[in-house]
Amino acid sequence: MGLLRTTMPPKVQLLAVLAFGVAMLLIENQIQNLEEARAKLEQTISKHEIAEVDHRHSQNIGRQFSTQAEKDDTVIIYNRVPKTASTSFTNIAYDLCGKNGFHVLHINTTKNNPVLSLQDQVRFVKNVTSWRTMKPGFYHGHVAYLDFSKYGIKGKPLYVNVVREPIERLVSYYYFLRYGDDYRPGLRRRKQGDKKTFDECVSSGGADCAPEKLWLQIPFFCGHHAECWKAGSQWALEQAKYNLVHEYLLVGVTEELEDFIRILEAALPEFFKGATQLYRTGKKSHLRKTTEKKPPTKETIAKLQQSNVWKIENEFYEFALEQFRFVRTHAVREKEGELEVLGQNFFYEKIYPKVN
């Protein structure tokens, strides 16, 4: 180069230097372009890989949900209290089971005894949890609450129930035993032929209308403990309240049965889709109206309300009513005179780690 510098004229040397510089700039520019192209290619490949992973993940989740949907293990137990409109509600489940794809099973106990023997408790728990061909399932019957976790079961069923004002429930049951109802009008009832009114029964101190007969809703919620069935037990009341709040998905009241059904339809559409409309228009929605029922006088009601059993049973009913109305307040809203189920009021945000 030194020899070239001495022999080449200055202008030629300048042109050579300029040409070399331009060539270097072009090469550097090409290198930069190649680097950018490589970076874009790597970014594209990376995005493609992430998208592929996300796609596979979505497919896996979809398959999981599909499998779960195909193998829905949900079990509902409705341990129905007598004379609380339980037949009306149960018949809705029977009408919907074929359409919505679940099974309905009646728990028929000997002499309608709500307390199961220990061996039957174990049998029942095993049946409900392992009888896969009957899942999803809706079990109903006059059975006291049974705590499945006591038997080492992890997958507990969903409990639902309905309660009624205690004296109204007893009056309805009193006349039901004598006159039957419109569900099976030809069936002879245990007290058929007894024409004594409920007022006369209370006035004469009859056994069928004694305050102790009010003691039924609390033990049904309290369960299979000896104390649950001691009329007037404060411990049983507290246990029944605890179970209602912690072990039951929803407890409605007879006087507001349609709202109970509406909320269940919103919460468990896989079981109760179409239930509200069916309750309003179906032929089986208002069955089992007791025949020849005569409302008690104020004097009769006042006499029953003096008993400690009524006070405790009524306290439980008021507790259940307050809880139900609290749930309803947060589940529906009134619009143009009709109750409308609220849609989803939560969503997810700030999800990490981020995916570019």
Automatic annotation (TrEMBL):
One of the Pfam families matching this protein, by short name: Sulfotransfer_2
Record flagged with keyword Protein biosynthesis: no
GO cellular component: Golgi membrane
Membrane topology reported for the UniProt record: Single-pass type II membrane protein
Molecular function terms, GO-annotated: heparan sulfate 2-sulfotransferase activity
Places the protein is found: Golgi apparatus membrane
UniProt keywords, alphabetically: Coiled coil, Disulfide bond, Glycoprotein, Golgi apparatus, Membrane, Signal-anchor, Transferase, Transmembrane, Transmembrane helix
Coiled-coil segments on the chain, per record: 24-54
Record-stated family: Belongs to the sulfotransferase 3 family.
Name of the protein: Heparan sulfate 2-O-sulfotransferase 1
Originating species: Cynoglossus semilaevis (Tongue sole)
